[in-house]
Amino acid sequence: MINYINIEDELKKSYLEYSLSVIVGRALPDVRDGLKPVHRRILYAMHELGNTYNKPFKKSARIVGDVIGKYHPHGDAAVYDALVRMAQNFNMREPLIEGQGNFGSIDGDSAAAMRYTEVRLAKITSEFLTDIDKDTVDFRPNYDNTLKEPEVLPTKIPNLIINGSSGIAVGMATNIPPHNLKEVIEATLYLLDNPNCCVSDLMNFIKGPDFPTGAFVYGQEGLKSAYETGRGSIKIRSKIEIEEGKNKSIVIKEIPYAVNKSNLVEKIAQLINENKIEGIADLRDESDRNGIRIVIELKKGVYEDIIINKLYKFSGLEQSYGINIMAVVNNRPKLLTLKEVLECFLEHRRVVVLRRTKFELNKAEARAHILEGLKKALDIIDEIIKTIKQSKTPSEAKKNLIRNYDFSEIQAQAILDMKLQRLTNLEKQKLIEEYNELIKTIEYLNSILNNKEVLKTVIKEELIKIKQDYSSERKTIILDYDPDNINVEDIIPDSEVVVTLTKNGYIKRTSLSNYNQQKRGGKGIVGANVSKNDFVIDLVTTSNHQDLYLFSNQGKCYKIKVYDIPEASRIAKGIHIKNIIPLAQEEFIAKLVSQRNLTINDYFFFVTKRGLVKKTSTSLFKNIRQTGIIAINLKDGDELIDVKLIHHDSEIMLITKSGYCIRFNTNEIRPIGRNAMGVKGVALREGDKVVSAVEINGDDRKELLTISEKGFGKRTSLDMYRVQSRGGKGIKNMKVNNKTGSVCGSVLVNEKDEIIILNSLNKIIRIGVKDIRKAGRDTMGVKLINIEDGQRIVCFDRVIKEENL
Question: pTM to 2 decimals?
Answer without folding.
Answer: 0.72
